Amino acid sequence: MSPLVGVIVTLGMLVVLPLGLELIEPGRRPVILAGAVPGAVSLWLEPGHPVTVWLAGVYLLATLVLAGRILPRLRRLNVVEFAACTALATPAIAAVALLAERAAIPLFGYSGQMLALTVAHFHFAGFAAALVAGLVSRLTGDVFAALAVPGGTLLVLAGYFAGDYAELAGSVVLTTGMWRVAWLSLRQVKGERVLIGVSGVMLVATMALALSWALGQATGLPHPTLGVMIATHGVGNAFGFALCSIAAWRRLRPQPL
User: Fold this and answer.
1) What's the Cα-to-Cα distance from 255 to each of 112, 134, 159, 162, 169, rounded to whole Å?
2) Comparing C-alpha atoms, which of 251, 153, 155, 151 is closest to residue 199?
3) Of 117, 179, 203, 255, whose CB count within 10 A is highest?
4) Are 254 and 139 in contact (CB under 8 A)?
5) How far apart are the C-alpha atoms of 89 and 226, rounded to whole Å?
6) Which of 197, 166, 164 lies closest to 183 in space, CA to CA?
7) Is residue 32 a contact partner of residue 62, using CB atoms and an 8 Å limit?
8) Close Cβ partners of 254 (under 8 Å, ≥ 6 residues apart)
9) Is the pLDDT reported for residue 177 higher than 90?
10) What pLDDT is recorded for position 208?
């Protein structure tokens, strides 16, 4: 795992996830931090070492506890709950990839850098994006955002197994949903205009890059390298979108999803 990806994932585990979780399941932050701190430490230790693997495993257990909170929500499932359930589930997907990457074991044909990027993806394009989409959808009544962002995230996951064109389809759906979230946030969220503005502008730019990369992967057209994507799409989504959005929504103090 490169140092930059390590910083991005650390931000997701120790800041974005615990703070964002208070907007869905208040009071659960100590549980996730109990796993996130060891998990974050594992990022900076030698891959394959038993201690590294054990620490990553602790994080996986914490995220599985979090995913278990989906069950009580299923009886009242609607589009906003769909977004909330996706946000609760995606950290566990990230944690599975983290455990495999830290154990230096290929998972479904992926290893090394791709697993590390999967960990980052499902903290930001998974957890943070689904959370913000749910909050925006509930505020505005917009159904599309609450369906397209979680749906696109799950389609991207399916694309890992079905191939580049399936992942491209997921990227199109996810990008459209994220742009919709940015548009609705800029127009209808009252207050915290600077943070909302930064997150909205970042979403437009970073998701355009994601779409360009997915299109190039599927068709062979020129597209950014992974290194460029990490430094632009990854950094922008982590600091510009996720961190700013969650900071804004916490200051706005909405009712939990």
Assistant:
1) 40, 12, 34, 38, 33
2) 251
3) 203
4) yes
5) 26
6) 197
7) yes
8) 23, 135, 138, 139
9) yes
10) 94
Give the C-alpha separation, 160 to 146, whole Å: 23
pLDDT in tens, 27-43: 889 989 999 999 999 99
Q: State what percent of residues in the chain have pLDDT above 90.
A: 75
For residues 116 and 118, give the distance between their C-alpha atoms in angstroms, rounded to a whole number.
5
Tokens of 120: 């980052």
Mean pLDDT computed over 71-83: 89
Tell me the sheet residues that pair with 110: 107
Q: Strand, helix or coil at 179?
A: helix
In this prediction the pTM is 0.94
* Alpha carbon distance 29, 22 (integer Å): 7
Which helix (H) or strand (E) segment holds residue 224: the answer is none
8 A C-beta contact, residue 101 and residue 115: yes
- Coil, helix or strand for 110? strand
Which are the contacts of 109, defined by CB distance < 8 A and separation ≥ 6?
none
